[in-house]
Here is the input.
Amino acid sequence: MFEGAHTALVTPFSENGMIDTDSFRKLIDKQFDNGIKGIVPVGTTGESATLSTEEHHRVVELAVKHTAGRGLVIAGTGSNSTREAIALTQAAEEGGADAALIVTPYYNKPSQEGIFQHYRAIAESTDLPIILYSIPGRCHVEIEVDTAVRLAKDCPGIKALKEAGGVTERVRQLRAALPDEFEILSGDDALTIDFMKEGGVGVISVAANLIPKAMADMTTAMLEKRFSDAESINAQYSGLFSAFLKLDTNPVPIKAALSLAGDCLPKLRLPMVEMSDQKVDELRGILAGLNLI
Here is the structure.
């Protein structure tokens, strides 16, 4: 269901800090015109933490309407409150989303039993297919392999896991323990090939906002076992992947890159702030070297 490249969309803002719907629509067009299989609005990259509930619903509904069946709309509906995650997921379902990406509860640091109960409660509240999202670097807890197995067994609606822990061995462990039909997606552009070699089926990509065709082509090549083609694409953009990680916290660098490419303004919502001029100049050089600007 989730094979290929999916884009973790940014939420463009205008000069006055409101959602820039025109840029958002153009960004969606850019994805589907270049082979992207699905989009993920209002995830971490979409600055979900600083959107109001009303804005969250609006962005999902706008994404669904403008996608118009060209691919999947996977709404980010996670929260550190189970009740809120349920409400966001049900609203996404009502808004026409195809699936939900639900991040592990952050700040609370629940036990594995708490994580299990959290996801089971959400799964029981919706008919949407659910993608678990483990990103310990932000949440300080991960979905352990045994917990993922329990969820896959007890919750038929949980179909996949986005793995953003940065450890290829963990993908190997997950793949060995989970049912064959349960899908694993990379949450790290730079590790997409390594993860797919261990049984992953694709990526939820930040870089695809800027380079959708490259990410779509790379994952397609991996699925078709054209490994040298995939490796070539990965090598071409490895410096960009690294820059997005080292220059600042996501989504600051990708918004700066999209601004340099003329796709949207680099505006963010506090407490996120724009990169320094020095870092923007470094990014500009990388993009120019790749003929992206």
